[in-house]
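Write out the 3D structure for:
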Amino acid sequence: MVQEVDFTDGESLLRPDWKEIALCLKDLKIRTNLLTHGADLTEDKIHELVNAGVTCVGISIDGLKESHDFMRRCTGAFNRTLHSIDLMKKIGIKFNVITTVTSQNIDEMPALMAVLQQHGTDAWRLQSLIPAGRVKDSKELTIENKTILKIGQFIRENKKSAHEKGLEIIAADGLQYIFEEEKAATHSPWLGCPAGWCTCGITSDGKVKGCLSMPDELIEGDLRKHSLWDIWFNPESFAYNRKFTQNQLGDNCVSCDMRESCKGGCSSNSYTANGAFHNDAYCFYHLSGNMR
């Protein structure tokens, strides 16, 4: 049974039938979230989201003004997005801010956190840049090992105090086991990549893959040819996760004491960085030296 659908990847609100799809999901009592750059939200558009049953809106803010506008290739995008946050706070729709951390913006995180707190943000998700697509050719945005370590250290130093002030900092995939207590498998927030286990992604043209962050060569099926049911329950689908064994772990993960539960980290990070699964080169736990 489908419990949640997220509109994501690209700009969701550019799709002319987004509201029709959201209303259908609402009728089916399926929770719906939507990711947007947020620079063009108006009060009317936010009320549309509410009436269509959208439960939570994810807003992308990738650094302070200069960095964010550079990432978006749009002057003024940062200020317009903050205005959208103020409107969502006023209207009362739940939202969170998602920041893709790069070598360019990593040192802006303390100042950005202060800005988000000033604008009443309740949840802030930090994720490292996935080395895919055009970003591979960008010297400004290249992710480095020291960047991953800085992200983890920032979360370690600020998560508790931010929580006390009403801001929940959320660590995305690849940043697992930032805190020592998270290593306990019984309550770990990270038990391996969920692609093909409890999640999958559908592209705008109906292709199905485990996660929308993965390259297009990792397609499991096409909804124009087969039903989602048939693709999902095909015993050969999502084999990289469903047929995982520890002998598939790469050099970054094979000696890790968390390999049994983690299973090699974020699949998108691993595959885009080195062409293989279960070998996440951007794992905070690995890079911070907590190996045994």
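The mean pLDDT is 91.
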